[in-house]
## 1
Amino acid sequence: MVITDDTAYQLVVIKGASGEQVPYLFILAKQRKGMYKGCWMTVGVARQDSNRQTSLI
């Protein structure tokens, strides 16, 4: 996991029944107010290109 201030990024690889692996990048934000203040909440999910050779973050 990579954390910068109130944003975090986590790469998750899902393996399907056929053995195919598909990476997803989860983007989280630390809540600043309200009943979830201080909690990390998912604000986005992006499917990544598994053939990409460069850093995802």
Note: The chain has a mean pLDDT of 91.
## 2
Amino acid sequence: MTRLAVAFLALVIFSVQVFAVAVDDNPLEDPAKEAVARELMKEIRCLVCQNQSIEDSNADLARDLRQVVRERIALGDTPENVRAYLVDRYGDWVLLEPPVKPQTYLLWASPFLFLLVVVYLVFRRRNATAGAAPLSAEEEAELEAILAAKEREQ
């Protein structure tokens, strides 16, 4: 196969996956409400895929959650109300970007804490090696004797 044929085949395969979500769903008749629902779907985590939004996921549960979002938007709920409804049912974890509140402070601070620990360890190691004084003549002689004894043992 030529490169062009392979590229075309890959394009067809990937484009089918991209449009798979849109084909399965029943969008709202009101384009404005559908746009609001779609924006909200980008913020909700697929509970099966975990690192995908429900808009991007093909999982059955994601499809069900998309339907719930559309139903609630169609009934006149605001995105905040829909978000609150889903958080009440599934917890903050259902949001791709969890809120900053006392229960999630450690979650939000963990990257910075990790960075601080790494910086501390690097500087501690650097200071430990930089502060080492050169060996005295006695210490050098003792080290040479130890190394010579080790060589004889081998």
Note: The chain has a mean pLDDT of 85.
